[in-house]
Design a protein that fits this description.
mainly alpha; TIM Barrel; 2 domains; four-stranded parallel β-sheet; 14 helices; 4 strands
C-alpha cells in the first residue's frame, strides 16, 4: 500500500483505536525489528528503526485524540537475537531503558505500565549456518541464554535445521526442550536482570543507548520513518550494512565457526528436508470454493462495499472489517478493497 498521506499508518491507527475502545486487554500492534536485523541491519539499527516505527504510530494515534496512557502500555515488539553475547544483552537492556524514557519524557505518560518494554526475543535465523548444522543447537541455547539474561518476557528459538528447510518435528522439539532446560534446570527465570551492576555490561548498555539515540536522530532528520521508507533511505542503509557484514564474514573479520574458521570436512548433513505436498494447494482451493458457495454472497458484497466506503471516508475500518470476516469475506477480497482505495506501495530502487 502507498505510504503517502499516512494511509498505511492510518490502518494501524484504526487497529489501535478500535482495540482501546472494544478490546481493552488486547495488544493490537507488535512492532517488528526482527526482519530488519535479519535483513542485515546492525543491533543499533534494529532497535532505532523499530522505535522510530513505534514513534510514527504513537504520533498518529495521538493526533486522533487518544491519550498516551490509553494505548502505550499495549504496544509490543518482536526483536532478534544473534551475534556477540554481551552486545545482544546490552542491546535489550538499553532498549528497555530508552523506551521508558521515550514514553515518559517525550510523550508524558504517567502510568508506569506505559513505560514497560514488552517484547518477544527470537533466536535469529541469520545467525544459523548450513555448515555443521548441529552447531546451531549450541547457538540456539546461547540465544536463549541471552534472552533470559537480558530480561525479555517471551522468547522463541529457531531450530537447528532452519538454514536448510522448514523445521522438522524433531528439530522443533530440541528447541523447545532447550528452553525448558534453561528455565527448569538452570533457573534462568529466578531473577530479572541478573547482570545489572556489571561494569562491562553497564558500560556496553550506556554506549548502546547513545548509539540508538543517534540513529533515531538520523531517521528524524530524514523526515521520520514513513518518509525514510518511502524514499528508500532505510532500505539502502540496511542493504549497505548487509553487504558489509557478508564481506566481513567472507574475509574472516567476523568469525563464523565451521564456515570461515575451524572448518572441517563433513559428510552430507543429516537433515530431514521438508516434504512438499503437491496436493495441498488443490485442497485449499477446494475449501475456498466451498466457503464461497456456502456463504451469503449478497451480504459479503454489501460488507465489502461498506468497507470501501469506510476507507474512502477515513472512518475506522475495523468494525466493518470484522463484520466482513464473520461473513467469510476472504483475505484476498479484503486486500483488493484496500488496494483499490489506497493503491500499492512501489518499492523504491536502493541503487
Amino acid at each position: 500500500m502507498d505510504l503517502s498521506g499516512g494511509r498505511r499508518i492510518r490502518l494501524i491507527g484504526d487497529t489501535i483505536e478500535y482495540s482501546c475502545q472494544v478490546l481493552p486487554r488486547s495488544y493490537p500492534v507488535s512492532v517488528c525489528g526482527y526482519h530488519i536485523r535479519e535483513s542485515g541491519a546492525t543491533p543499533v539499527q534494529e532497535i532505532a528503526y523499530a522505535f522510530s516505527i513505534a514513534a510514527t504510530y504513537i504520533d498518529h494515534v495521538l493526533e486522533r485524540g487518544l491519550a498516551i496512557d490509553a494505548f502505550a502500555g499495549r504496544l509490543s515488539f518482536n526483536l532478534d537475537i544473534y551475534g556477540n553475547f554481551f552486545e545482544q544483552i546490552a542491546k535489550f537492556r538499553a532498549a528497555r531503558r530508552l523506551w521508558a524514557r521515550l514514553i515518559r519524557e517525550r510523550y508524558g505518560a504517567r502510568d508506569p505500565r506505559s513505560w514497560q518494554f514488552r517484547m518477544l526475543a527470537g533466536g535469529g535465523g541469520a545467525g544459523l549456518t548450513k555448515q555443521q548444522p548441529e552447531n546451531n543447537i549450541v547457538r540456539g541455547a546461547y540465544y536463549a541464554l541471552i534472552s533470559a539474561l537480558s530480561g525479555t518476557q517471551t522468547q522463541a528459538l529457531c531450530s537447528y535445521d532452519e538454514a536448510y528447510t522448514i523445521p522438522s518435528e524433531k528439530a522443533a522439539l530440541v528447541s523447545l526442550m532447550t528452553n525448558h532446560i534453561l528455565l527448569e534446570e538452570m533457573g534462568l527465570r529466578d531473577t530479572a536482570d541478573p547482570l545489572a551492576g556489571s561494569y562491562y555490561v553497564e558500560a556496553l548498555t550506556n554506549d548502546m543507548e547513545e548509539r540508538i539515540r543517534a540513529e533515531m536522530a538520523r531517521v528524524e532528520a530524514m523526515g521520520g520513518m514513513a518518509r525514510a521508507v518511502e524514499t528508500g533511505w532505510v532500505q539502502r542503509e540496511v542493504a549497505r550494512q548487509a553487504y558489509q557484514q557478508e564481506k566481513a564474514v567472507q574475509e574472516g573479520r567476523i568469525v563464523k565457526v565451521g564456515v570461515n574458521k575451524y572448518v572441517v570436512d563433513e559428510d552430507e548433513p543429516n537433515v530431514e528436508l521438508h516434504r512438499y505436498d503437491e496436493e495441498a494447494a488443490g485442497r485449499q482451493i477446494a475449501r475456498l470454493r466451498e466457503v464461497r458457495r456456502e456463504r451469503e454472497g449478497r451480504r459479503v458484497a454489501r460488507l465489502l462495499k461498506d468497507l470501501e466506503g469506510a476507507a474512502r471516508e477515513r472512518r475506522n475500518v475495523m468494525p466493518v472489517l470484522l463484520e466482513a470476516v464473520r461473513a467469510y469475506a476472504t483475505v484476498g477480497e479484503i486486500t483488493r478493497v484496500f488496494k483499490d482505495v489506497y493503491g500499492e506501495f512501489n518499492e523504491p530502487s536502493i541503487f
